[in-house]
Amino acid sequence: MMNSQFLTSCSADAIQRAAEQLIAGHLVAFPTETVYGLGADATNEQAVRRIYEVKGRPTNHPLIVHVSSLNALGLWARDIPDFAISLGRAFWPGPMTLILKRQELARDFVTGSQDSVGIRVPSEPIALELLARFELLGGLGVVAPSGNRFGRVSPTSAQHVQDEIGKNLVHGDLIIEGGNSNIGIESTIIDCRNDTTTILRPGAITTEMIKSVNGINFSTAENRDLRISGALEKHYAPNAKVLINQSPIKGQALMALSAFETPEGVYRISSPENVSDFARLLYSSLRRADELGFDVIVVLIPEGQGMEIALLDRVSKASNGL
Ligand code: TXA
Ligand code: MG
Fold first, then answer.
1. 96 CB under 6 A from ligand 1?
2. Which ligand places an atom closest to the C-alpha of 237?
3. Ligand 1 in reach of 32 Cβ (< 6 A)
4. Could you tell me which of 317, 173, 297 has the C-alpha nearest to residue 245?
5. Residue 62, ligand 1, Cβ within 6 A
6. How far apart are CA 154 and CA 196, in angstroms?
7. Distance 100 CA to ligand 1 centre (A)
8. Domains present along the chain, CATH in parentheses
9. Distance from the CA of 236 to the center of ligand 2, in angstroms?
10. Whose CA is nearest to atom 29 of ligand 1?
C-alpha cells in the first residue's frame, strides 16, 4: 500500500486538477511510457528551479519539454529541419526526444543556457491527457526529468517516485498513479541541430528505426558539445554494485533472460522473456536488489543491435563503467 499525501488517481477529475496544479506552479509527477517524469510548467522559472532542488540535480543540466503534439514544436524550436518533422510524424507520440535549436520561449533555466532544446510528445494516455488539459488552460509545455534523485535509478511506478522524492514535495504537489511504465527506460534522444542525425541516448526507438525514416542522414559520431546528464559516467545507479555479463556466484542477485538457469546459491531477481520485457523490468529489478540488501547484482544483457544497445548503455552507467 502506498502511503502518500501526494498520490492521486488517474481519473479525469484528478488529471484536470493536476493540470491546474501545474498552471499554479506546483510539481506534478506523472507516468509516461518510458519512466515517470517530475513535471513543472516550462515557462515558470520558480517551478522549474524547484525540480532541480527536489531532484538534487545540478542546475546546468537541461530538461526535456513535453507537449501534446507535433504542432507545438515551433513554439519551442526554430530552424526545424524537414527530417525532424519526419521523425516526429514517424515516432510521436512515443519514446523519442528531439534536440533542436531553441526558440526564445525555451529559457536558460530549461536549456541549461544552451542554444538547444529537447522536446518530446509522450504516448502514455495519462501523460497526453495531462498535457492536453494543461494546454487548454493556457500552458505551453511541461518540463519533466525522470522523477528520481540525481544519479539514481529512474522511477517506473508512482511508488518509486514517492520513495525517491516524496519527502521533498510540498502541499499542492502531486504524483499521478498510472501503473508501471510500459517501456521502462528513458526516451531515445536524437540531435537534430545539424544536417546529420546523432543518437545522444539510445532507447526504444532504435538506430534501425531512425534510419528507416526518409531524409535521414545518420551519423554515429558522438556529440561532445552538448551537456547531457545521462552521459555522465555514473548514472541510473542503485546502491548494489552492478556487474555486467559475468558469471553470478553464490550470494549475488541476478537478472537474466528466462532461458538462463539460475546457478545454485544465486538469487534470481527477475527473468524477462525478451528484450522489451528486460527493459520494462530493469529499473525495478535494480531497486529490488537494494531493497533485499544485496551487495552485488549481476545483469546478463541480451545481445543485439536493437533495444539491447540501450540496455547495455543504462546498465554500464549503473555499473560505473565496470
Ligand atoms: O523518457 C524520458 O525522456 C523521460 C520522460 C519523463 O520523458 N525524461 C527524462 O528526462 O529522461 P531526464 O531529464 O532524466 O533526462 C533528459 C536528458 C538529460 O540527459 C539531458 O541532459 C538531455 O535529456 N537533454 C535535455 N535537453 C537537452 C538539450 N537541449 N541538449 C542536450 N541534451 C538535452
Ligand atoms: Mg533522468
1. no
2. 2
3. yes
4. 297
5. yes
6. 30
7. 13
8. 7-219 (3.90.870.10), 241-319 (3.40.50.11030)
9. 8
10. 117
pTM: 0.95
Distance 226 CA to ligand 1 centre (A): 11
User: What average pLDDT values come out for the chain (322 residues) when binned by 10 residues?
Assistant: 76 97 98 98 98 93 97 97 97 98 98 97 98 98 97 96 97 97 98 93 97 87 57 77 97 98 98 98 97 97 96 93 48
